[in-house]
Design goal:
Elements lengths: L5 E4 L3 E5 L5 E6 L2 E4 L4 E4 L3 H18 L6 E6 L2 E5 L2 E2 L2 E8 L3 H6 L6 E11 L8 E2 L1 H6 L5 H23 L3 E8 L1 E3 L5 E3 L8 E5 L10 H4 L5 H13 L2
Antiparallel strand pairs: 1-2, 2-3, 3-7, 4-5, 6-7, 8-13, 9-10, 9-12, 10-11, 12-15, 13-14
Bound molecules: adenosine-5'-triphosphate and magnesium ion (MG).
Magnesium ion binds next to loops.
Length: 237
């Protein structure tokens, strides 16, 4: 298969058409960005570590009965996925307070959220990804009420699988961001990636001991060393 037909160049991944209209190739690049793209760097190896973690996690999620887009890893930076019609929402599940929850609402960092919270942002960089609710989502025609309920059910189910898997590796899954889409049959599937760019992971029991993109956002240490050690702990190699 060729790599010619670029469908979309995102901030961190490039998406290519394949010979099969139902399948895409996703290439995880070494670009890293934060703060709506205002901070940008290229860090060699970053794409590979995120691809490795995503390729480890999606089969676990599928095994738990949650439909995903993932088909197979093609090489260290490239995945073959099902083409989805993406739903422009960032679905965030939070097990502990961090980031915007602390900044905007005054939670103490690390405050346990039980049951987990779901927050949804509209995925639109030009509007700075505003927080959205079910009524606005339905009124805009982004998703039906039934689809929103299904998205939330799936998001909580993914959180449960991952939280447990990572806790066994002494990693606290603080929060994570999901993107969902519809496949050709209209089934809602988990798309995009689950990686150090999209999860907050803390070393077990230590508030703010980040093993994720917060190390880049807040300049807490060497980003590639952090991604490498997180990938090793998650994937066990
Ligand atoms: N299975 C899929 N089918 C179609 N598009 C997908 C699929 N999975 C992910 N995408 C889309 O591919 C793009 C991935 O690129 P990337 O994550 O770099 O872009 P971005 O979302 O624009 O940037 P950022 O995530 O940094 O805001 C996103 O637009 C994402 O919604
Ligand atoms: Mg993205």
């Amino acid at each position: 298969m060729k790599h010619d037909d670029l469908l979309r160049q995102g901030k961190a991944k490039s998406v290519y058409l394949t010979n099969n209209p139902d399948e895409l190739r996703v290439v995880f690049r070494d670009d890293i960005t934060a703060f709506d793209g205002q901070k940008k760097n290229v860090l060699q190896g970053k794409g590979m570590y995120n691809a490795m973690v995503t390729a480890y996690i999606y089969p676990l999620i599928e095994e738990a009965g949650i439909p995903t887009h993932f088909l197979q890893a093609v090489d260290a930076n490239t995945h073959l996925v099902r083409r989805l019609s993406m739903i422009p929402l960032e679905v965030i599940v939070r097990n502990r307070a961090a980031g915007s929850l602390v900044k905007n609402y005054g939670f103490t960092e690390g405050h346990l959220l039980s049951p987990p919270l779901i927050v949804m942002d509209m995925k639109d960089d030009s509007r700075h990804d505003p927080m959205i609710n079910d009524e606005i989502t339905a009124a805009l025609g982004i998703a039906t009420a039934a689809e929103i309920a299904e998205i939330k059910r799936l998001a909580l189910a993914v959180n449960e699988v991952l939280h447990k898997n990572l806790a066994a590796k002494d990693l606290d899954l603080v929060d994570m961001k999901f993107e969902f889409g519809r496949d050709a049959a209209g089934t809602i599937r988990l798309g995009d990636e689950i990686s150090m760019d999209s999860m907050r992971l803390w070393d077990h029991g230590i508030v703010g001991a980040s093993l994720d993109k917060d190390v880049y956002r807040k300049e807490l240490g060497d980003v590639i060393d952090t991604y490498a050690s997180a990938a090793k702990r998650i994937c066990g190699k």
